[in-house]
Design a protein that fits this description.
Alpha-Beta Plaits
Amino acid sequence: MSASPNDNGIDDIDQRILQALADNARISLKELAQAAGLSSPSAAERLRRLEERRIIAAFTIDIDAAALGYPLQAIVRVRPLPGQLHVVQHIIQDTPQFVECDKVTGDDCFIARLVVASMAELDTILDKVAEKAETSTSMVKASPVKRRLPPLSRGR
């Protein structure tokens, strides 16, 4: 297999390392080295370089919100009222049930993911936001594509 880098500076070995870590961020260095076809010191050096280049920004966990008592998820589109953008942003940031939020272009300013234990909890949270913004809420039925790696090789 070729180890020449693609236009992102990621070669086949780096791709194998990233895929192995995406599959299991707790993989041992020995197992990571085996997956990449490297020695443990070489794998450690590759890993260090990927972190230095910020290709790997963090090692994290994926938590099942339902197992923590939040069986419902909603996607909320938020359009702050005039002059309320920063206030709304702070409300979202200060509400721990908002587990993700993107500031976007278009008619809405924010698109956020919210986890809640009940519809009553959803209403209580949205009432705080609705004082300063218009919202449009969609309940999540399923997530056919979970967060995943972007394509590691562009143009191949």
